[in-house]
Amino acid sequence: MKTLSGLIATAFLVFPTITEAQNINVIDILNKINQAVLKLDEGQFTMHDKLTKLVTDDDSSLTEHTTLCFFKKNPDDSLMGYQLAAFREDGYQQIYNGSYLFTVYDRTLEVMSKQEHASKIKEQLTGFTGPVYLTNTNRLLQYFNQPSTAQNIHLLGFDYFAGEKCYKLTIDNSRDPKRTSKVYYYVSTNSSLPLRTVSILTSTAGETKETLIFDYSITGIKKKLLEVNQFSREKLSDYRIEKRYNSSEEDTKDELLPVGSPAPNWKLPLISGNTMELTDLKGKIVIMDFWFKACAPCQKQMIALQALHEKFPSNEVVVVGINTIDDPKRDRLDLFLRNRLITMPSVYKGNLIESLYKVYGSPALFIINKQGIIVYTASGYSSTLINEVDQVITNQLK
What we know:
The chain has helices at about 5-10, 25-40, 115-125, 135-140, 245-255, 295-310, 335-340, 385-395; strands at about 40-55, 60-75, 80-90, 95, 100-105, 110-115, 155-160, 165-170, 180-190, 195-205, 210-220, 240-245, 265-270, 275, 285-290, 315-325, 345, 365-370, 375-380. By secondary structure, the chain is an alpha+beta fold.
């Protein structure tokens, strides 16, 4: 079996040749990138995005997608400036024609009007995958094309991607000793287009070291569209339902069972063995934390809650992890928790009670007072959440 460091080393190409690149100015490369990207009025390419997760407790995984992407400049559109289309191998499809964003997922076509939902469209189309890869990567790199930031970008040398010689650039990006970040850009020496971005994020949680490798690349670049109607909704296929985007549906999904409600009872198996029932905890303050293994924010929240589990007396405050979708044996949940130094009790089969608490995503957190009433809820993780939870618990103990 390959070691963790060995897997990282093979995740992208060998270290580049340095000698030949010593006299090349990084600013000149950035200027060439900008000129090359802005010169592209229309075109298409194949996008490859790969996520490799490497964990020391062997909870590793690989997901990858291939997307056929199209773009065309649209001077009349002030929102994106382009018409865009993407067709992924798993059936996910998206077309933005300057007036509407059409998205096909789970065989459902969702139609979003720019006139009504411009900010939502921009949010969905802002990223580093799909047809916006070239423009958004260029925009990020041009941030370093100024005196105040130029010292943070460096040319490592030359490397090869898909048989093409590339400049290999890197950005200084690490600030937290427990979370390191390295980013590499492969820029064609021939076309000056950015062809690949590799981001390596390494974090430590307890005794577990986790490395995430985001590998985005493009191949098969053509500078002309093959079809004139590429951004027509008629290009979309394989959907059975059509619906207009409704922001209230998303708002509803963020509405957990409200503060002031009696907490519904449950009885679930403990990962450590036996069972736990909410009514058995009456007379104590209970913090319920919904989570699952693949959820990165869940892990951050879980580790932060462990500190509260250790801070407050167990006869007054109980922090309970509610695993929603993982199998305790197949997914080795006991090892997962132990390697992250999590000792607070955790139950599984939490999907059976998600609807009772109106939980539609994780992490989700509830604080229940000694009388069994919900006094605090939070959907999603934030860096300030634990301080808020600490304060609520302290107030409840007075």
